RNA sequence: GCCCCGAUAGUGUAGCGGCCUAUCAUACAGGCCUGUCGAGCCUGUGACGUGGGUUCAAAUCCCGCUCGGGGCGCCA
C-alpha cells in the first residue's frame, strides 16, 4: 500500500513501506546510490545498494524526474541529514523522463519566468510553487465553509452572455451559433437577478474574462472571482461579511499549512478584523497633504497606493467612491449624491475586492443607465427583474489570484495562477 | 494604446568592432569512487532570434520584423 512521504515519520522504524514519486536527485557512488524521491507531500532519501535490488543497473542509469515505485525498509536512524531513509529492495520504473529537462526542478541556476511558464508542468513540481495552490485550495475551502454557515447558496451563472456587464467594450467576443456573444466579465447582473428570485444570499466562485490590454504584474485576462450578493442588506453588512470571511479562511489555511509555508519561505500574518475604513475623499486629502496632486474624481495611481500602503499595512477599505468611478448599478450615498455607497478592499497597495450597496429601485436604475450613457435596451433581461419585487441588496467580488498573490507576498499575479492568460500568453 | 528595456548551449549568464576556434555556472553523456546529502575529481557534447545595412572585419554598430520583460492608463 502506498505511503505518502509526509506520513513516513508516523511509521515505525523498520517497517516495510512503499512510495510512489519522481526521482528528484541522484547521487551515485558506484555500488551505492541515493535517490531523493518526491511526491506532492514531500521528499525522502531512498538508498539503493547493488546487491539489494535486482535491476540495479537500470536504476543506476535512471534519469532525473523519472517516475518510480519504491518498496523498502524504513530506516529512521539513518546518517543522512534528514535522519530518515528507505533502504530499497524493489524499485519499479513506471516511466522515464527524457534528458535533458527543459528546465531543472532543483538546479542551482535561475530560470526566467517566461521559461517557467512555458514549462509550467515542471515548474509546478517545485514544492514552493505547489504550496501556492494548496494554500489557494484551503483558502477557498474556508471561504465556502464560512459562506455556507451564513446561509449562502452557491450558484453558477453563465459565462457566455449576450450583453456587457458594465457597458464597457472590454469583452471577448465569441461566436454563438449564428449570434454574437461574449465571455462574461463578472457575474454581477446574474447575482442581482437572483436577489429578485428570492435566493436571498448567493455566492459564486468562477472565471471572469476581461479583454483589457494591460501589461502589468497584477492583471490577468482570465481570473477567478469570488462573488457574493446579499438581500435586505447594506454595504456595511457585506463589508463585515467580507472581512470576517477573509479572516476566517486565511487564519484557517494558515493553521493547516503555516508550517509547510514557513519551511518554503512564505509567512502569513494573522488577519484581525475589523479592517480600517477610509473614505475616498479623506485619502485624496491625505495624499495631497503629502505632495500628490489629485482632484476629487481621480483614481489612485499605483504610486499613490504604494504611499498609502505605508500607512495602512495589511487590509483596509476605501469607501464612498465618486459616482463617476463606479458602475451604473452602484447606489448613491443618501447625504452626498456625488459619492456612492461603495468600497474597495485593499491589501497593502493592491485592490483585491470591490463591492457596494446596489440600486434596487427600477426608476433610479433607469436614470443611472442614462447618466452613464448606456442603452438600457441591451440590458432588458436584467432590468426586468427590478420591476416585480427586487429587494435592497449589496455584494462584492473578490479576486482570488490577487488575494493569494498578496497574502503570500508574490511579486506577480501569474505566480498564483496555474496557467495564466495575459496580453500575450494563450498557452499552455 | 503609449513609454522604457531585453533576446548568446537544455537552463541561467560573460563578452558590447579584430585578442571569440565565444566565458562561467548548471544540466547532459562517459569515467573513477560503498554513506552521499549544493557529493567530489577527470574527459566530452552543446549557443550568438530573424531579414537587411555599415565596415577590410559584426555576437558586438544602425534599421525593420518576431518574441519576451517592466512601467503607465485600467482594474479583481
TrEMBL record:
It comes from the Archaea. One of its GO terms (molecular function) is magnesium ion binding. Its main location: cytoplasm. It catalyses: tRNA(Asp) + L-aspartate + ATP = L-aspartyl-tRNA(Asp) + AMP + diphosphate. Catalyzes the attachment of L-aspartate to tRNA(Asp) in a two-step reaction: L-aspartate is first activated by ATP to form Asp-AMP and then transferred to the acceptor end of tRNA(Asp). PANTHER family: ASPARTATE--TRNA LIGASE, CYTOPLASMIC, ASPARTYL-TRNA SYNTHETASE. This is Aspartate--tRNA(Asp) ligase.
